[in-house]
Amino acid sequence: MIRACGVGVSYGSVHAVTDVSLSIAPGLTVLSGPSGSGKSTLLRVLSLVERPSRGEVYVHDVPTSSLSWSELRVLRSKEIAVVFQNPGDNLISHLTVGENLRAAGAADLSLLDRLGLGASATWRIGALSGGQQQRLAFGCALARGASVVVADEPTSQLDARSADLVLETLESLPVPAVVASHDPRLVALADLCVPLAAS
Ligand SMILES: Nc1ncnc2c1ncn2[C@@H]1O[C@H](COP(=O)(O)OP(=O)(O)OP(=O)(O)O)[C@@H](O)[C@H]1O
Ligand SMILES: [Mg+2]
């Protein structure tokens, strides 16, 4: 439902993203590439936080350049959930696991079982490992009812074991996900890999 056509982003003489076209298909899309290749920039454009310098981003075939910033904000809050790199930034630390999920809009806590957190509903966030926190963050993204989940380097601040938990979750998400990462294990899981080159 999100489609980029000929997207480019420049900051003065820095060409952060050059002529990218892609469709976010069901499954996992991974933006890969070395540091500075424009992964985070492209993610911001796909999540409607930033407008491209060139090209167009379509959401449900609507060209988003035709929308005002406030219309973009409404569309973003309805369609797109973002999971940040740092697990703590995604969750409300003084609420329990279950309360976080409810605050995100979950009608019940059945999602916790799917996230392997069924026994942790009453735990404080600080009692979870980084990987469990990131899992819960993806659960909250689903509870928001977004059509697409976007995540920038969701495993980069985790040890290998915690990262494994996140990889399992990403593999089984019921909505399309777009993830920026240079983690080769995450790239290997991709249904679509978009390699970006350093400019
Ligand atoms: N707001 C900005 N103003 C100016 N230059 C920027 C801005 N955002 C990004 N850039 C530049 O655009 C290029 C791409 O940056 P970006 O952060 O998208 O890369 P990245 O692939 O996410 O890198 P990393 O793997 O280190 O996170 C870099 O040269 C960066 O310095
Ligand atoms: Mg980045």
What share of the residues does DSSP label as strand, in percent?
A: 25-35%
Number of domains: 1
What is the CATH C level class, in words?
Alpha Beta
Q: Please give the order of strands in the largest beta sheet.
A: 6-7-8-3-9
Query: Percentage of helical residues?
Result: 25-40%
CATH fold category name: Rossmann fold
C-alpha geometry: globular
Can you give the mean pLDDT?
94
In CATH terms, the superfamily is P-loop containing nucleotide triphosphate hydrolases
Instruction: Report the span from N to C terminus.
Output: 28 Å
The biggest beta sheet is recorded as: 5 strands, parallel
Low-pLDDT runs of 5+ residues are: none
SSE class? alpha/beta
Element-by-element helix/strand order = EEEHEEHEHHHEHEHE
Q: How many beta-strand elements?
A: 9
